[in-house]
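For the sake of clarity, the format in which proteins appear in this thesis is described at this point. The record quoted next illustrates the convention:

___
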Amino acid sequence: MKKALCLTALLALLIPAGASAQQQLKLPRPSPKASVQQTVGLTDVTINYCRPGVKGRTIWGDLVPYDKVWRTGANEATTIQFSQDVKVNGKPLPAGLYSLHTIPGKTAWTVIFNKKAEQWGSYDYDEKDDALRVQVTPAQGPAQEYMSFSFPEVTPDGATIELAWEKLRVPFKIEVGTKEQAMANIRQSLSGDVKEWTVPYGAANYAFTANAGTPDEAMKWIDQSVSLKETYYNLRLKAAMLDKAGKKKEAVAVAEKAVKVGKENKDDSGEIAKTEKQIAEWKASIAG
């Protein structure tokens, strides 16, 4: 007991005056923190992880054993967050924050989305908290010293997420309901009192170009925009929609009005010239 008290007194003498007992020594981590974020359509995907290095070690089947749950990184468990519901390799996964674990294998991996996000490694991992498991196939790739996550392929409706470390690549695909989400946003925005022509114009333009919703909905929205204010842009869009519906004569009439309004407002002359060329082509097809 006396020895313990003497040691405590000695340590107290060695601590500089004014130093806090709560001070912490901050040093660089051998496996630094990293974060990658990607918006896919209207869905934000964020991955937070720590990046272990190869450092001359044998990774697969040694440092990272086969057929055992792995934290998929270092230190804290890797986390992945989706702002909207998604599908992972075709299987549904609700929006939320998950810890991302894997079970590496020689020819196949299991990717695990676990509902307990805050974990140290996979030591407290419990399968009963799994929200989803998917099977993926790894592939060989160029040497990668520090582990990384990336989004090598992104489209408006989905993306590929890829884990890269050593000479291995582990990809999985996500799908997002961009069109459904966008159309829901449009209907919500247009359900009230709309005073700006740009709002229904944007809705009609998206529905038309993305082939979302129904043609009748898109036409209703472009008519709403035109009723608020006739512009070169909404008239031109309406003409394009009429042409697609097989109503070329009506398309010509609306397009000619678009050109007239555009010239009066001194809009983009290059775009107006394109519309004039389109009118000539429509008239020729009607005459033919």
In short: Residues 178-287 form a domain with the Serine Threonine Protein Phosphatase 5, Tetratricopeptide repeat fold (CATH 1.25.40.10).
